[in-house]
Automatic annotation (TrEMBL):
<keyword id="KW-0493">Microtubule</keyword>
<keyword id="KW-0505">Motor protein</keyword>
<dbReference type="InterPro" id="IPR027417">
    <property type="entry name" value="P-loop_NTPase"/>
</dbReference>
<keyword id="KW-0175">Coiled coil</keyword>
<dbReference type="InterPro" id="IPR036961">
    <property type="entry name" value="Kinesin_motor_dom_sf"/>
</dbReference>
<feature type="compositionally biased region" description="Acidic residues">
    <location>
        <begin position="53"/>
        <end position="65"/>
    </location>
</feature>
<dbReference type="InterPro" id="IPR027640">
    <property type="entry name" value="Kinesin-like_fam"/>
</dbReference>
<keyword id="KW-0067">ATP-binding</keyword>
<dbReference type="InterPro" id="IPR001752">
    <property type="entry name" value="Kinesin_motor_dom"/>
</dbReference>
<feature type="region of interest" description="Disordered">
    <location>
        <begin position="43"/>
        <end position="65"/>
    </location>
</feature>
<dbReference type="GO" id="GO:0005524">
    <property type="term" value="F:ATP binding"/>
</dbReference>
<protein>
    <recommendedName>
        <fullName>Kinesin motor domain-containing protein</fullName>
    </recommendedName>
</protein>
<dbReference type="GO" id="GO:0003777">
    <property type="term" value="F:microtubule motor activity"/>
</dbReference>
<dbReference type="GO" id="GO:0005874">
    <property type="term" value="C:microtubule"/>
</dbReference>
<comment type="similarity">
    <text>Belongs to the TRAFAC class myosin-kinesin ATPase superfamily. Kinesin family. KIN-14 subfamily.</text>
</comment>
<dbReference type="GO" id="GO:0007018">
    <property type="term" value="P:microtubule-based movement"/>
</dbReference>
<feature type="domain" description="Kinesin motor">
    <location>
        <begin position="101"/>
        <end position="424"/>
    </location>
</feature>
Length: 449
């Protein structure tokens, strides 16, 4: 057989496959590179005798072996590419679904130990998109969301629905995932989780690192964590001073850079090389969060906790930005001050949380109505999230509700808030960028299907 020609052709095939490398793993590329390294150079191939008269039988067998090895590898790679294409198609579908929209999920907290079942008229999730509230006189009220997680839903199920947004982050979009809801309804459980059942934050960071490796570009990832407590920003990676002589942490400030990207002055951003480094920082930050016991929750978060993962990539022209960010936000719980009977500091904290949540509602409502003026400036929360809530960003809101009848008023408020958010259309269809995206989506679909 003409082994020289075969080897040359294989090398060409391998090189052309490398042209598709954008979505291939680094292992894939490494194995390709290793194969190519083992190929004889074109010159040496040309010089090899091609007829069977050669008296060096060992060399011939060696070539045959390496050709069949490469063929096997090619078959494997072709199958692998096919699998990737299926995945890519799925992602594309989700991308189109996500494009220009805020997605709203609802999670219903399960009844936890010690709660009275007796006179419950529970909130019911009738299917995966609808929440039905049972009201007086056999009346019901239903709400539709992109996804509804009933009380038995696992952290895994929640994350599976959230995960596609991580791909958008790798593609260069700013993204924001936030947990909203009445105090004690499970926001921290969803975002942080526990050691056995990790929540969205650890899972999202892990997925981000994995996808960054898989997409075969060099990324620089940095981690920051802050809380907004009583209207002030506090860096959660800077320990509180314990002695009077300890230096005070510098104040954090919110500015916009010339491109309109939000910059938080003095916020510590630590470069992390792997998931475990990021997780250690996250745990450190969680310990510094302001929590307190309230009538509704033994460890109530008294602030908005915000995790920012910034991703920079210098060598990927197809990304939308060089640096973009993923915000993971555990909002403070909305509460009816009369009901919680909070007083003193707890009352002030509750009021500050309610004020900023209402500012968030106003921003969302203005986005929904496509107003020219969006009142981002009315709270620190909306100022910080300004470039991750508007056009050209991806948002997931997880609204949390209680299953208890006594919380029905708060549940209705939360579901109304979430319903308003659901109809926000964040994309501006007329922008050139949007048109280009649509064009490339069509081209890609054509290519993939
Ligand atoms: N899906 C769930 N499965 C099991 N336990 C849950 C779930 N959701 C919430 N819980 C439990 O309910 C309690 C209150 O939850 P959590 O502290 O997460 O509420 P929260 O909304 O963050 O409250 P706050 O706004 O006051 O901080 C916790 O003990 C938590 O473990």
């Amino acid at each position: 057989m003409d082994s020289g020609k075969s080897i040359r052709n294989l090398a060409v095939s391998l090189h052309s496959l490398l042209g598709l490398k954008t979505h291939l793993t680094s292992n894939w590329v490494k194995s390709i590179s290793d194969i190519i390294k083992t190929l004889p150079s074109e010159k040496s191939v040309d010089m090899q005798p091609t007829n069977s008269d050669t008296d060096d039988d060992d060399d011939g067998d060696g070539d045959d072996d390496s050709v069949s090895k490469i063929k096997d590898e090619l078959t494997f790679l072709t199958n692998y590419i096919n699998q990737l294409n299926i995945k890519r198609r799925q992602i594309l579908h989700e991308f189109l679904d996500l494009k220009g929209n805020i997605r709203v999920f609802c999670r219903i907290r399960p009844i936890t130990g010690g709660e009275n079942f007796g006179h419950l008229r529970p909130v019911v999730a009738s299917n995966s998109n609808e929440v039905v509230l049972k009201l007086m006189d056999n009346k019901t009220k239903s709400y539709n969301f992109d996804q509804v997680f009933h009380p038995g839903s696992s952290q895994d199920q929640v994350f599976t629905e959230v995960e596609p947004i991580i791909k958008s982050v790798i593609d260069g979009y700013n993204a924001c995932i936030f947990a909203y809801g009445q105090t004690g309804t499970g926001k921290t459980f969803t975002m942080e989780g526990s050691a056995d059942t990790p929540g969205i934050v650890p899972r999202a960071i892990e997925a981000l690192f994995k996808q960054a490796v898989d997409c075969n570009h060099a990324f620089l990832i940095s981690f920051s964590m802050l809380e907004i407590y009583m209207g002030n920003l506090k860096d959660l990676l800077v320990p509180k001073p314990t002695k009077v002589t300890d230096p005070m942490a510098p104040c954090l400030s919110i500015q916009a850079d010339p491109k309109g990207e939000i910059v938080i002055g003095n916020l510590v951003a630590i470069e992390v090389n792997d998931f475990n480094q990021a997780l250690r920082l996250y745990r450190l930050g969680c310990r510094l969060r302001t929590t307190a016991s309230t009538n509704s929750n033994l460890t109530s978060s008294r602030s908005h906790c915000m995790i920012r993962v910034a991703i920079t990539c210098f060598d990927a022209a197809e990304r939308r930005r060089e640096t973009n960010k993923l915000w993971l936000v555990d909002l403070g719980g909305s509460e009816r001050v009369l009901k919680t009977k909070a007083s003193g500091k707890r009352l002030d904290e509750g009021k500050a949380i309610n004020l900023s949540l209402s500012a968030l509602g106003d921003v969302i409502s203005s986005l929904q109505r496509k107003r020219h003026h969006i009142p981002y400036r009315n709270s620190k929360l909306t100022q910080v999230l300004k470039d991750s809530l508007g056009d050209d960003s991806k948002t997931i809101m997880l609204v949390h509700v209680s299953p208890k009848e006594e919380d029905l008023c708060e549940t209705i408020c939360s579901l109304n808030f979430a319903t308003r958010a659901k109809s926000v259309h964040l994309g501006n269809e007329d922008t050139t960028v949007s048109r280009q995206i649509s064009f490339w989506c069509i081209v890609l679909l054509h290519y993939l299907l």
